[in-house]
Every structure is written in structure tokens, then in C-alpha cells.
Amino acid sequence: MTISSTLHQYLNRAGVPYEVTLHEPTDCALQTARVAAVPADQLAKAVLLRRSQGYLLALVPASRQVQLEQVGSCLHDTVCLATESEVANMFSDCAAGSIPPVGDAYGLHTIVDQKLGGLRDVYFEAGDHCSLVHVNGSDFDELTADLLHVPISTRH
Fold first, then answer.
1. Torsion sign (Cα): 138, 139, 142, 143
2. Spatial CA neighbour of 30 closest among 17, 40, 41
3. How distant, in Å, are the alpha carbons of 31, 49, 130, 131, 146 from that of 42?
């Protein structure tokens, strides 16, 4: 797999130019950044959360981790991490644990850490553990323009 079909269709519909780069298989976002030689602050990782109204995708830089309390505070709701089986069901065209940060493509509400705004370049999982999508930062900002951008992370 190089790019999930859902992600591919979404980016094409949005008219966003992108490139897919391959790297050695990895187990986590920080490792992906190191192996792919991209700044961890520019690698957007997605974390699937569960809340009272269903699921939510939280986007943060790979160099940071989601703070559930901050997300819950912003949404006035309690949130927790989704289970691995919930992630697999929601992202059935992706490898386990490889979530593209485009909630819109999967019908998910999404919240974005403010650290992901205004970057020159943004990289993210393509749907497997050995491919990254690279987009211009302004295109990523445009894709996430209508989403809530708030501080929801802390550095690892």
C-alpha cells in the first residue's frame, strides 16, 4: 500500500497537490520522522479519540503528545483514546495504527493543535507504516481552515 484510497480521493477532490515518499517501516510517529528525515514538528500525527458524541480526530505534531484533558476542556466533554479495534474499524483502508490526519475524509470531527498552523511543509501518514504524504503547509492550512485550532498538546 502506498496511500489509502480514501485519502487519495479526498486530496484529489480538494485539489491539493501532494507527493508520496517511501521510508523504512516504523512503529511510531517520532521514529517515522527520524527515518524519513523530516522535522518531527512538521509531521502531523492523528489520534482517534472517543467522546460522548462519537469519535473525534486530534491532530498534533509528532514531536508532541495529545493532552486529553485539554481536548476535553476545549470541547466541554470527556474524551479518551479509542481502542485499537475502533481505530481499525474507522480506518479500514489503512494499516493498523496508521491514521491519516484528514478526519473530513472519514466523516470525523477534527481538532487541530495550533502548533500545526503556518508551517512551510507538512508530512503525514499515507495509510501504512512506510509511506508519507508531503503537502505544502499553506495547503494543509487550507484543508484544516474550518477546524478548531487550539493548544492540545505538550512536548514529549
1. negative
2. 40
3. 13, 21, 17, 15, 20
The distance between the two most distant Cα atoms of the chain, rounded to a whole number of Å, is 40
Outline where 20-153 has alpha helix (H): 29-36, 68-75, 84-90, 137-143
Alpha carbon distance 125, 106 (integer Å): 14
In sequence order, which residues have a C-beta less than 8 Å from that of residue 29 and are 6 or more positions away? 40, 43, 45, 62, 125
Half-sphere exposure of 92 (CA within 13 A, CB side): 2
**Residue 71: pLDDT over 90:** yes
Rounded to a whole number of angstroms, the distance between the first and last alpha carbons of the chain is 29
pTM for the whole structure: 0.94
Residue 11 pLDDT > 80, yes or no?
A: yes
Instruction: Render pLDDT for 48-62 as a digit per residue (tens, 0 to 9).
Output: 999 999 999 999 999
What Å distances lie between residue 75 and 38, 72, 97, CA to CA? 31, 5, 24
What does DSSP say about strands 121-125 and 43-51: parallel, antiparallel, or unpaired?
parallel
